[in-house]
Amino acid sequence: MPKRRVHVVAAAIYNGDERVFLSRRPSYVDQGGLWEFPGGKLHPHETGLEALKRELNEELGIHVKRAQPLIRVHHEYTDKHILLDVWGVRDFEGEPYGREGQVVRWVPVAELGRYNFPAANLPIIKAVALPHAYMITADQADETRFETDLAAALERHRPKLVRLRDTALDAEAYAARAERAVDICRRAGAQLMLGHRGSDVEAMVALVERLDAGGLHLGSDQLGVLERRPLEGSRWLGASVHDAAGLAQAERLDCDFAVLSPVRATGSHPDAQPLGWHGLQQMIEHVRLPVFALGGLGLEDIDHARGVGAQGVAAISAFER
Ligand SMILES: Nc1nc2c([nH]c(=O)n2[C@@H]2O[C@H](COP(=O)(O)OP(=O)(O)OP(=O)(O)O)[C@@H](O)[C@H]2O)c(=O)[nH]1
Ligand SMILES: [Mg+2]
């Protein structure tokens, strides 16, 4: 017998940027006792957003005014194929409570890892904890200029996640710059991702740990040759990819996110064929991984990127303005 296909909507309801609202499934239902993002199955002829509004009213007593797509996760349970269609909710009326008697709680995003969720939820948790803008540092040979520009971009745009791109630095110069950049980012409340294509991955992992950086960002070539996740789960592992094979490898390695490019034509890669928004959407539809869109995009494209199922936008030059 073919498996049942179930379409479920669920919400990450935010209180500011710090907390999300979780429910615990009653012990007598499917996946009982596990924590979940409130929501449920679509009724016939309902859109996702209609179902979301109905479920959050039935389960929590709130009225959703606006919601934004966060991530879509396909998952095979033994008895069913489930599509979890997850929305971010920041704009609602009422105070959520356990209207069906379920246990509920506001949970700091940083503590989500301590809760037990259904197996399908891991990519959702990563997507909730990840920001929607990923800043990539620009090429700058001059060290003082680099540091001033970085501090200015952090101040102006307040990104939470930054990647120190390797540019033309050798391994030693990269490590020296990384040490100062981690510090500058930390003072601005941002985490710094390290990754240097000219160094082996083990050396980069050691650097990430020594500097207590946010995580490791793999180039697409490095991603291709690895066999398992090279980094502990408490730090971010990101990867640059350009096609479906890259996305599949990023999933296999248990990366926390991928950066897919180019979405638009860019001056930095004039020969690469741009994916376009539709190409991006098709490529990430079945990927269990938050994906940032990169290539000719700016911060004004974040909503559009999220609308086609991406986590958000990665950019270099948008942060220089
Ligand atoms: N709401 C929600 N469901 C989830 C999550 N993760 C996950 O695997 N699921 C699965 O998705 C399905 C959701 O169905 P549900 O039982 O909440 O459906 P519902 O609210 O419409 O209830 P009902 O079918 O009793 O009327 C369950 O199989 C559940 O285990 C999650 O984070 N939130
Ligand atoms: Mg439910």
TrEMBL record:
Q: Which domain of life is it from?
A: Bacteria
Q: Which InterPro entries match?
A: Aldolase_TIM, Mutator_MutT, MutT-like, MutY_C, NUDIX_hydrolase-like_dom_sf, NUDIX_hydrolase_CS, NUDIX_hydrolase_dom, ThiamineP_synth_sf
Indicate the segments forming the Nudix hydrolase domain, all copies.
4-130
Instruction: Respond yes or no to whether keyword Cell division is given for this record.
Output: no
Q: Where does 8-oxo-dGTP bind?
A: 25, 36-39, 121
What cofactor requirement does the entry state? Mg(2+)
Short name of one Pfam family: NUDIX_4
**Catalysed transformations (reactions):** 8-oxo-GTP + H2O = 8-oxo-GMP + diphosphate + H(+); 8-oxo-dGTP + H2O = 8-oxo-dGMP + diphosphate + H(+)
Q: Which residues form a coiled coil?
A: none
Q: Which positions, given as ranges, span the membrane?
A: none
Quick one: which residues bind Mg(2+)? Answer: 39, 59
EC identifiers of the protein: 3.6.1.55
Q: Under the GO molecular function aspect, what terms does this record hold?
A: 8-oxo-7,8-dihydrodeoxyguanosine triphosphate pyrophosphatase activity; 8-oxo-7,8-dihydroguanosine triphosphate pyrophosphatase activity; 8-oxo-dGDP phosphatase activity; 8-oxo-GDP phosphatase activity; metal ion binding
- Record keywords, A-Z: DNA damage, DNA repair, DNA replication, Hydrolase, Magnesium, Metal-binding, Mutator protein
- Could you provide one GO biological process annotation from this protein's UniProt record? DNA repair
| Alphabetical list of NCBIfam families matching this protein | mutt, PRK08999.1
Instruction: Give the record's family classification.
Output: Belongs to the Nudix hydrolase family.
Q: What is the name attached to this protein's record?
A: 8-oxo-dGTP diphosphatase
Which species is this UniProt entry from?
Halotalea alkalilenta
